[in-house]
C-alpha cells in the first residue's frame, strides 16, 4: 500500500517500522501484534473507535490529530488502503497529494 504513495520514508525500529513523508510521520507497523498506527483527524479517530472498538483503538492525540491503532485481522484491504491514504494525505504537501489521488 505505502509503495503506491509518493516519497514515503521508512525507518526500522526494533519492533516496528515507521512511515513518513517529507519528515512528517503518518504511520507505524508492528508485525508482532499485527497492528498499525495511523494518523487521522480527531473526528475520524473518535468515529472509528466508537463504531468498531474490536477493530480500532485510540492510540494518542498530537498536534490536533488523533492516532488510531488498527487491528489488521479486523479490517479488509480496501478499508486499510483508505485509512493509509488518509494518514499519508494528512502529512503530505498539497503538490504530492495532487500527484497521487485516491483510489490507486
TrEMBL record:
Assigned keywords, A-Z: DNA-binding
Single Gene Ontology MF annotation: DNA binding
Signal peptide boundaries: none
InterPro entries per record: YjbR-like_sf, YjbR/MT2646/Rv2570-like
SUPFAM superfamilies reported in the protein's UniProt record: YjbR-like
Pfam annotation, one family: YjbR
Protein name (record): MmcQ/YjbR family DNA-binding protein
Organism of origin: Amycolatopsis acididurans
Amino acid at each position: 500500500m505505502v509503495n503506491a504513495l509518493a516519497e514515503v520514508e521508512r525507518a526500522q525500529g526494533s519492533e516496528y517500522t515507521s512511515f513518513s513523508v517529507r519528515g512528517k510521520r503518518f504511520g507505524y507497523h508492528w508485525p508482532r501484534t499485527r497492528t498499525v498506527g495511523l494518523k487521522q483527524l480527531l473526528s475520524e479517530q473518535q468515529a472509528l473507535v466508537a463504531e468498531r472498538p474490536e477493530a480500532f483503538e485510540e492510540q494518542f492525540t498530537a498536534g490536533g490529530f488523533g492516532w488510531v491503532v488498527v487491528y489488521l485481522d479486523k479490517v479488509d484491504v480496501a478499508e486499510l488502503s483508505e485509512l493509509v491514504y488518509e494518514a499519508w494525505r494528512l502529512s503530505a504537501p498539497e503538490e504530492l497529494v495532487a500527484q497521487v489521488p485516491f483510489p490507486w
